[in-house]
Write a structure and sequence with these properties.
alpha+beta; 7-stranded mixed β-sheet; 6-stranded mixed β-sheet; 11 helices; binds flavin-adenine dinucleotide
């Protein structure tokens, strides 16, 4: 079966879409939470004309005379795409990596009037919090992030607003399934969630409309330009398009005042070696930063996406598998809010041990998409599918005996299956250098991500890290602009 991905159009922040079951196209969801969008947009800076926007940012009069006087000296500055106004705004920031941390950072910067360019190697933003949609069948799976957790008495308002804007409450039971090693017997136990509620992310992640997003753009180099001793420095970003057939040309953007590294793999020798290149951060001349990022180790995970011939007759929407050799978590994706329910879509995540052992069986320094990579994925997919069927059939019998009914007469079968390898699924430690503030900073170079703060390896950590760095960067850039202004 052909398996094209569907990527959906723009909207503020994350925009919920759904798949029209007749046309099988992803369309804006009729119930897109406009209320939440409105609530969020009230906290945004007003976007009127550039003049009044900039004037309000710097608390200036919009008088053309004052404006011309302030802007004139800045005309000489070398700023990319620089209209005088754009140059005056200063603080153009390059955010590299449009996962949750990069998106949260870009959004918070844009809300403070700072010009942001957000690069990602992927075709869409989201990183590990992403959704796969089969354009042919309309089947939908979150094959990375399963859910976001929020305590009912959560006091962090900014986090609650973020969750309410980007996710919907996912109702249903979560259980633990005990599997004796090597056995197909599973015992289902209800999990007490305490005061935690679970939310499913909206299907498509989007950025703030004021952010200039460059998707399908793999950054291959970041350089510092100018004189570090006088502080007159700027940054340049080199990137390649990853769209097939768009050539191998390296493109250059210059004149950034700050850079946010929103993926620790930008310093990784192993990640760069896949493309036969050097790590992009090398050109920054920041060995301490490279060391701090290289110290963070990660565990791999393999995600299995399936559809079934009928909905499994089980009484849970998500289960943690205990004692299993291959599987760690399974989720009923069709039970998430606003998902098309024509299919019974499930995701299974492997244990880290299984992913590691399968990855060490074969040297995987081949590019994703090569035939050897695909062959390996198919083998893993089949092994995980067998394990998933065992668990669900066993859980069906368990549910039937608990309700004194007989199990469904039609045997449960997988009708579609596909695997995805997350080489660096979860960081294993919080970066000691990032812990106190939630991000790393070396001059005007920031590093953010889910390895920077508690709870390690979660959407919450990534959001908080991105936002904390944005607040710090915005304060510094605005203070710098003010001091420029007072010298004029
Ligand atoms: C299988 C799995 C299940 C998970 N389940 C949960 C869960 O249930 N709940 C939860 O809270 N968290 C979960 N997580 C963790 C959560 O997904 C992450 O913590 C979060 O998404 C990390 O966001 P990030 O922005 O730090 O990094 P990422 O999402 O990894 O973003 C980094 C981005 O940088 C881009 N990039 C990298 N190199 C380049 C380059 N050279 N040029 C341009 N772009 C580049 C990548 O394409 C990527 O989009 C799960 C993760 C996985 C893998």
């Amino acid at each position: 079966m052909r398996f094209p991905d569907v990527f959906v159009p723009a909207g503020p922040l994350f925009k919920r879409v759904h798949v029209d079951e007749r046309t099988r196209r992803a369309v804006p969801h009729p119930a897109h939470s406009d209320d939440v969008a409105r609530e969020v947009s009230t906290t945004r800076r007003p976007t009127t004309t550039d003049t009044s926007r900039i004037a309000s940012m710097f608390r200036l009069s919009t008088s053309p005379r004052v404006f011309a006087r302030v802007c004139a000296p800045l005309r000489a500055r070398r700023v990319r795409n620089c209209s005088t106004l754009a140059a005056f705004r200063q603080g153009e920031v390059a955010v590299i990596g449009a996962g949750v941390a990069g998106v949260a950072c870009a959004d918070a910067l844009a809300r403070r009037g700072i010009k942001v360019r957000l690069y990602d190697a992927g075709r869409n933003v989201g990183g590990r919090a992403t959704t796969r949609i089969d354009g042919e069948s309309g089947a939908v799976w979150d094959h990375g992030t399963r859910f976001v957790e929020l305590a009912t008495d959560e006091s962090d308002d900014a986090w609650r607003v973020w969750v309410e804007a980007n996710a919907r409450r996912w109702r249903g039971d979560f259980v633990s399934i005990e599997c004796a090693s090597g056995s197909t017997d599973a015992r289902v136990k209800r999990r007490d969630l305490g005061r935690m509620e679970r939310f499913a992310l909206n299907i498509s992640m989007r950025t703030n409309e004021d952010v200039d997003v460059k998707s399908s753009s793999r950054v291959v180099g970041i350089e510092r330009r100018g004189d570090v001793t006088t502080g007159e420095t700027s940054f340049a970003v080199r990137y390649r398009s990853v769209v097939p057939g768009q050539g191998d040309e390296v493109m250059l953007d210059e004149g950034f005042e700050a850079v946010v590294l929103a993926d620790k793999n930008l310093a990784s020798e192993r990640a760069a070696s896949i493309y036969g290149e050097r790590p992009p951060v090398e050109g920054l001349g920041e060995p301490e930063l490279v060391r701090a990022l290289s110290e963070i180790d990660s565990t791999p995970i393999i995600a299995l996406m399936v559809t079934f011939n009928r909905p499994p007759a089980v009484n849970f929407v998500g289960a943690e598998i205990r004692g299993g050799d291959r599987l760690e978590w399974i989720t009923d994706e069709s039970s998430k809010p606003d998902r098309p329910n024509a299919h019974s879509c499930w995701v299974a995540h492997s244990t880290a041990a299984y992913a590691r052992s399968k990855m060490s069986e074969r040297e995987l320094r081949t590019k994703v998409g090569t035939s050897s990579h695909q062959e390996w994925l198919n083998e893993v997919r089949d092994e995980m599918s067998d394990a998933l069927l065992d668990v669900l059939r066993s859980a069906e019998s368990d549910a039937a005996s608990a309700s004194s009914s007989s199990p469904p007469s039609i045997p449960l079968q997988i009708t579609f299956k596909r695997a995805h390898r997350w080489g660096a699924a979860f960081p294993t430690t919080i970066s000691p250098a990032a812990k106190s503030q939630g991000f790393l900073r070396f001059g005007d170079v920031y590093a953010v991500g889910d390895y920077c703060t508690e709870p390690l390896g979660t959407v919450r950590a990534a959001t908080q890290s991105g936002r904390a760095a944005a607040l710090d960067a915005a304060e510094r850039l605005i203070a710098r602009s003010s001091s420029h202004r007072s010298k004029l």
